[in-house]
Amino acid sequence: MTGMTMWTAPPIDRHPPDRLAAERRAMDELLDWQRETLLSKCAGLNAEQLVRPAVAPSNLTLLGLVRHMTEVERWWFRQHVAGEAVPEVYCTDDWMDADFEDLHADRAEAELAAYMTEVERARAAAATRDLDEVVPSRGHHPEQTRNVRWIYLHMIDEYGRHNGHADLLREAIDGSKGQ
After folding, report:
1. How far apart are CA 75 and CA 85, in angstroms?
2. Cβ–Cβ < 8 Å for 26, 17
């Protein structure tokens, strides 16, 4: 890792989704757009800025959002869609909010890289699955099955909500606005 004060999150080249794409391609592209949007909110900020909460008493930070979405990508795509028995990345039974709370600026670079790796693994987990395929629940409610389409829609919704948070966090950090 480079020095914490020297490192800044890299720029992101966002790719708008094709507005005329067939369903599967449209979902893949819109989800990727949301992923890129989150990373674009981090781009150009140093590690200290990424762990800075915007408003007391909230503990919400950009790095916390990235860590949370790392968990969410793993939960829905790897654990549910692929059926992999992989543990949580940050959260534990004893510390369910560790993704938002156990933040250290000196780990920011590695945690952004871990997020990007998890996204690649999520893409691979979903690539060969049909949108209509029903997958079992891996959570506390085994009766709550869902299809892969529902997971895509849920992920797009989850990113949309958190990207709204990221907009406000970024504006509070350096005044930047935009999509």
Report:
1. 10
2. yes
Cis check for the bond before 11: say yes or no (omega within 30 of 0). Answer: no
The closest of 34, 40, 32 to 13, measured between CA atoms, is: 40
Which tokens in the block code for residue 23? 């369903």
Enter the pTM of the model: 0.94
Query: Which residue's structure tokens are 């299809």?
Result: 147
Helix and strand totals (H; E) in the chain = 6, 2
| Cα-only R_g, the chain | 16
How does pLDDT run across 75-112, given as a tens digit for each residue?
999 999 999 999 999 999 999 999 999 999 999 999 99
d(CA 30, CA 116): 16
Helices (H), 18-175: 23-42, 47-50, 62-73, 98-101, 108-127, 148-174
CA nearest neighbour of 58 among 148, 144, 172: 172
Question: What are the structural domains of the chain?
Answer: 23-174 (1.20.120.450)
User: In degrees rounded to 5, what are phi and psi of residue 8?
Assistant: -130, 150
